[in-house]
Amino acid sequence: MAAAGLSSKWITVSEPVPHVLHIELARKPVNAFSNEYWRAYGALFQRLATEGRDVRVAVVSSGIAKMFTAGIDFAAAGDIAQGGLSDVEALDGARASLSFHADIEEYQRAIGSPQRCSFPVIVAVHGLVLGLGVDIVSACDIRYAAETAQFSIKEVDIGLAADVGSLAFLPKVVGNHSMLHEFAYSTKLFSAADALQMGLVSRVVPGNRDEVVRAALELATLIATKSPVAVSGTKRILNHSRDHRRVVAENLEYTAAWNAAALRTQVLEPASAVLALIGLKDIPESLLAAREKRPTKFAPLRKPPAKL
């Protein structure tokens, strides 16, 4: 039900287990991203962020057997490099630059859209992950790689600094900045083992596409059993800490403000009457389920749309 109406020309969305979406990218032959494709990717996550579907985790993978993505389609790269997403031919240099700036920001918002979702987004990669693929991976919350995966921060080879997300996210998420600089300057391919050593991925899965997707879905299924209020709050606070990493006190203040609202649940007793009235609030439900040794039942974060 949560996946209803979300699939599009090159993106297939399914719900393999309740509250978990599997988003498969499949633009043959190599999953290259045209302007239409990356806009569809951003629009999908925008819908997931705003429509109130009861999604608690999403897994992003490739439907192409030997490749996650070859990156940006060459035609789209040419358009972007020339400021061609908008009609700038008749504009002077300053106005053309402003228009071009808006185009790049649109591109960044689309690829960074998983960050704006209230739920975790897990990416499961295999095969080649080139250029824009590293941007996509960097904007996801949890990153798994099959042992076959090979990565390249490719943009220098087409004459530009990566401007969609890699160079913003990677210094925040990796632990080996020397390796990051080496691969960003040289565009050399690096392995799943390198990505694990650097901190880009948290797990390398033996096998190929099927194995890494299975591992990601297993993790997603586990996370989906947890309180969506707690998981959503955890994502927000972790991202705030990442983006304000030098100011611990600021993050603690943010955490206090967030939890002051998120922890306003009802008392546990009398359990059955209270839970019936308040719609299974997360803390009482977590405690009661543990006591009764049964699965938890959590309400959606938002009221679902009228029709799916």
TrEMBL record:
<dbReference type="GO" id="GO:0005739">
    <property type="term" value="C:mitochondrion"/>
</dbReference>
<keyword id="KW-0276">Fatty acid metabolism</keyword>
<dbReference type="GO" id="GO:0006635">
    <property type="term" value="P:fatty acid beta-oxidation"/>
</dbReference>
<dbReference type="InterPro" id="IPR029045">
    <property type="entry name" value="ClpP/crotonase-like_dom_sf"/>
</dbReference>
<dbReference type="InterPro" id="IPR014748">
    <property type="entry name" value="Enoyl-CoA_hydra_C"/>
</dbReference>
<dbReference type="GO" id="GO:0051750">
    <property type="term" value="F:delta(3,5)-delta(2,4)-dienoyl-CoA isomerase activity"/>
</dbReference>
<comment type="pathway">
    <text>Lipid metabolism; fatty acid beta-oxidation.</text>
</comment>
<keyword id="KW-0443">Lipid metabolism</keyword>
<dbReference type="InterPro" id="IPR001753">
    <property type="entry name" value="Enoyl-CoA_hydra/iso"/>
</dbReference>
<keyword id="KW-0413">Isomerase</keyword>
<protein>
    <submittedName>
        <fullName>Delta-2 dienoyl-CoA isomerase</fullName>
    </submittedName>
</protein>
<dbReference type="Pfam" id="PF00378">
    <property type="entry name" value="ECH_1"/>
</dbReference>
<dbReference type="InterPro" id="IPR045002">
    <property type="entry name" value="Ech1-like"/>
</dbReference>
<comment type="similarity">
    <text>Belongs to the enoyl-CoA hydratase/isomerase family.</text>
</comment>
